[in-house]
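Reviewers of the previous submission asked for a worked example of the structure-prediction workflow described in the proposal, so we include one complete record here. The input consisted solely of the amino acid sequence. No template or homolog information was supplied to the procedure at any stage.
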Amino acid sequence: MIVDEGYVKYRCVHEIGPAPEHPGWAALNELRTDLVRAGLVGVLSDGVGYGNLSLRAERGFVITATATGHIPVLGPDGYCLVTRCDIDANTVWSIGPAQASSESMTHAAIYEASPVTGCVIHLHHAGLYGQLLEGKAPATAPDAAFGTPAMARSVAELARRHPADGVIVMTGHQDGFLMYAPNVDHMRDLLYMLSQGYIPC
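From that input alone, the workflow returned the following structure tokens.
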């Protein structure tokens, strides 16, 4: 994994506020806990976290906060609400107990490109990453670094081609990939298919 994983690269306009409320939060948080146990979300030996999850909300999307990868089970305070994102200005607006994940702009790009998407996750796994690359799954531009407008634009282009659901390899982000689906249940199905060798076209 690249050494700058977990660091926020966008301009953050964050307002400290209460934990966001969302009817699907419990299901998303349960999925996160399962992904932590599987090693797909977590923390490196140097303490830098990786992996994040989000759900579309009435006003933006709810996403795991930055620097939470070391926490096995998150509470509501481990999430915030992203209310606006301007990719061209490299700026994210959020509200909650803590600042939004470093990949918030990429999540925003998928939600904008695919109106049916209700859930986005960003995971790390060397084996699955290699499986996806070898199977020629949709992949971002090699020069698009994580957490940047270039990554967001590359991801949006791929999501527009396959708006229903999908898996995207983050070529310029070692071991990283994105998944998006209409809801958490669909996401679990997609994860199971991926574990069984499914390669999206």
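The first strand starts at residue 11 and ends at 16. We consider this example representative of the routine output the project will generate in years two and three.
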